[in-house]
Amino acid sequence: MYIEKINGPEDVKKLSNNELTSLAAEMRQVLLKRASIHGGHFGPNFGMVEATIALHYVFESPKDKFVFDVSHQTYPHKMLTGRKDAYLYEEHYNDVSGYSNPEESDHDHFVIGHTSTSISLACGLAKGRDVRGESGNVIAIIGDGSLSGGEALEGLDFASELQSNLIIVVNDNDMSIAENHGGLYQNLKLLRETNGQAECNLFKAMGLDYVYVHEGNDIPALIKAFEGVKDSVKPVVVHIRTLKGKGYKLAETHKEEWHWHLPFDIETGEVIADFGGEDYSSVTCDYLMKKMKEDPSVVTITSATPTVMGFTEDKRKEAGRQFVDVGIAEETAVALASGIAKSGGKPVYGVYSTFIQRTYDQLAQDLCVNGNPATILTFSASIYGMNDVTHLGIYDIPMMANIPGLVYLAPTTKEEYLAMLDWSIAQTEHPVAIRVPGGAFVSDGKAVTKDFSKLNKYEITKQGSKVAIIGLGSFYGLGVEAAEALKESTGIEATIINPYYITGLDEAMLEDLKANHDVVITLEDGILDGGFGEKITRFYGASDMKVLNFGIKKEFLDRYDVNDVLKDNHLTVEQIVDDVKKCL
Amino acid sequence: MYIEKINGPEDVKKLSNNELTSLAAEMRQVLLKRASIHGGHFGPNFGMVEATIALHYVFESPKDKFVFDVSHQTYPHKMLTGRKDAYLYEEHYNDVSGYSNPEESDHDHFVIGHTSTSISLACGLAKGRDVRGESGNVIAIIGDGSLSGGEALEGLDFASELQSNLIIVVNDNDMSIAENHGGLYQNLKLLRETNGQAECNLFKAMGLDYVYVHEGNDIPALIKAFEGVKDSVKPVVVHIRTLKGKGYKLAETHKEEWHWHLPFDIETGEVIADFGGEDYSSVTCDYLMKKMKEDPSVVTITSATPTVMGFTEDKRKEAGRQFVDVGIAEETAVALASGIAKSGGKPVYGVYSTFIQRTYDQLAQDLCVNGNPATILTFSASIYGMNDVTHLGIYDIPMMANIPGLVYLAPTTKEEYLAMLDWSIAQTEHPVAIRVPGGAFVSDGKAVTKDFSKLNKYEITKQGSKVAIIGLGSFYGLGVEAAEALKESTGIEATIINPYYITGLDEAMLEDLKANHDVVITLEDGILDGGFGEKITRFYGASDMKVLNFGIKKEFLDRYDVNDVLKDNHLTVEQIVDDVKKCL
């Protein structure tokens, strides 16, 4: 196979057009086999095989610099830049990350996993090149789905200010993860339908030059286009039309389902290990669907990740105008929720913890300063969530819980979660966020009668003495286990507390604990710095109470083993008990 | 005067075209007098007088809802909606805030002070109206300068999804605070020059209908245009050309200087009380100007607020291509800085604390995950900073300092500030932010020899015992005063510590303090929740050390008196000493 002999872009340049086309076919076979065994991003990579080959054929990476947006479409790029073994051989599948990574190769310039950043980052590389008097092309490669994000649109607008070389390749497969949403997609459609000739052109309106390539999966056409813009002395957009999932029929047809995929059977496309059963996505969807039917003013909002709330295509259709996908536009999602709440509607915005990071100012200004009663659900806010460095969900508490006015809740079970959601939608006083638990799905069947409108009232679930254990959200169960182990080891019956509220202290209860407790410990499924536990510790700062905060230290983790991380952070039951015993 | 009889929009509707024009002239006189005595936003309001009159003439506020972007152009709107007295009579000047405010009037729907939010918020109002089966127009009013912000561009893109009534008035005065930057402004220029007829049209490319009004300061022309779009059943942009500062020659000519203005003499335009002298803006500009001349790879970046770093128009010209204004596009500013640093350049991004809130994810992902050595300067991060609820600068520590990988520094004097800046620009290991001190400008002339590359090394500036005072950044001086008062009151010579580093603990020093100290206090010029002091308290949680954290409680403050806030938060010297004594 040609691919076996590709050790870097220089080997790509040696091949003829026919050989390059064969290479593309080989790469697809390799990607298909790996995906079927290993899982990962599928559609984005299958669509980009030819464009990646053409980019490496025309440009001189790493002197010419590629910046891949989201970078989950870099598998072909990695295969051509000295990392083919990680795709060819099963024993090497884990040698590479799923995103661009400068630690792996000089051909990668940034660790990127969030969308819509490539143009602005590439502007930086270009500006740095210019002030340092260097040369070389800078090429941002961005999918159409990522264009709706604020940072991408800012970057498109700013790029023309550079007045020097910058090439923006827009990979237009007419899809985000789900279908695209937003007016600009009408313009991309118009451009595709007019072979790029329509006068009304978003990119030209942003002050940029523009080239269209209708056959974005045809290597000679792409090479011609890239050669035409190479060494351009001003920013230019190359708009290429590609087919998402190209080369695997099921992925071409069911683009959303095959954007990312678990390991599967190549013949049937069926997932090899299906987890199935109830989970927080399915209960969220079931609940909201029922609620929306009862109340036409309930609106469910997603920013291009509808299935995190269980809203597959059929469910979205069923919800009709009460389900809004803003596209990749998290800032607008929060502002929209605030506006809907202001007008008397009942918005629920579901979002991954890692992506709500894109909305600090919208949470603070658009929502909390205004005190509008919107509901936000943060998913995968847990050490048990996604484990790529770019997709960690363990920073949400410091980011969100220190914003005044927000009520941030941490349920420990399905029943608490749904009770909180029910309360939040009904109430009209506060912006509310709910930290959907990570880790195991816990359902104890207990009816929840708590009145959540009495803010910051914790609950003693087991009265004990000497030691009090405050277990927040998904680490409540760990607290219960630690209490049992402590009893076994020392005979001490610890008090166990479910705090429910991340954003405030139950000062009366904490004060009462002083009477017959010497040690308070806090447990949280997130980083310690700026988190929940520190607030408890501050409360006791001037007292004799000993306080231990358990959680994760402030650092960037990458592709970790959960058990290793727990051990490193003294989060095993044994370690917790040992630490407590040292305080007694 | 007509204005004296305007108690609400219904009174505007009674006037003839000629009377409305007279009303506009009166309103300008009133605005001019008030601005000359009270100060405030000038240019934005002077340009919007006619449009505001026409809006209230045509639409039925508050059933029809206006959402003003930034909302510092709402003075005319306030004058026409029952709040004229706050503009007519000096004793009532402080009755209103400088921004829209639902607590003042039903004609205001949001508290808004940051740019680029109006379209997305208005989309929310429109969506809420639709699902609730209500009627009425929703009108977002946004200036051209705000269009470059990511949230505004997201909103423009999303709006067409509504498929119902939404009117976006683009107030185009060809200016941001300073001149506009970005490619889209070429398109606005083209539209102005073609009377709105150019085929290439940003708004149409976003899927929106479009109307152009060349005479945006002419009431009949505006009335006609607004009547044309009233009750539109789909989103439409009304692009109006206005003159910033219209009606006051100096403001028309020197638009940047007159965007916001201190009280001034109407005849000469001269500021009545000029503070003058050295401040952190001027020393920043002087330093960076020198540095840029020495090193062509140093790049100063602003997001449309160049003068916070002292870069007035002449200085910007002098800096040439080493000064970059990205426009109102904070996200792109951070990504740009990361890219420049990655390519070997030396970027310095200066930004108000309240606006860096718009970049949490860019700080975390684009910058810190990548570990690129960019420098960020946060200004007005202090209780002594801007005091409108929308412009508070006291939340930056929880937001920024809990992001892994960032080195956030807190200088206490000019000399430390410049030494940190010098180190940050030279080093190549870390993303660095510097919290420019608020409050009094302190310069002690002392040479700073500290090696900042040895991270998290605090300094004992005065060795004492029993009590240790850790005074962060601009509250270091308060710590010194408290130490003196404590000595006077108790005879105790406290240890005084300058921590320098917000983002990490000097664990060795903190450990050593245990030997001969019983109480540690922390002082920080920001909110306590998620802040610096809590990390110190956590360190001592399991020990016998008593720790008191002094800072500001988590809440939204608005137009406050600093001394009141300090008192409310136990931040006077007397209160601090009293609290310490209770612990001894």
Automatic annotation (TrEMBL), chains A, B:
Protein source organism: Wujia chipingensis
Name this protein carries in UniProt: 1-deoxy-D-xylulose-5-phosphate synthase
Keyword Endoplasmic reticulum listed: no
Domain (Transketolase-like pyrimidine-binding): residue spans on this chain: 278-444
Pathway, per record: Metabolic intermediate biosynthesis; 1-deoxy-D-xylulose 5-phosphate biosynthesis; 1-deoxy-D-xylulose 5-phosphate from D-glyceraldehyde 3-phosphate and pyruvate: step 1/1
Family: Belongs to the transketolase family. DXPS subfamily.
GO annotation, biological process: isopentenyl diphosphate biosynthetic process, methylerythritol 4-phosphate pathway; terpenoid biosynthetic process; thiamine biosynthetic process
Signal peptide annotation: none
GO cellular component: cytosol
Cofactor(s) the record lists: Mg(2+)
Annotated keywords: Isoprene biosynthesis, Magnesium, Metal-binding, Thiamine biosynthesis, Thiamine pyrophosphate, Transferase
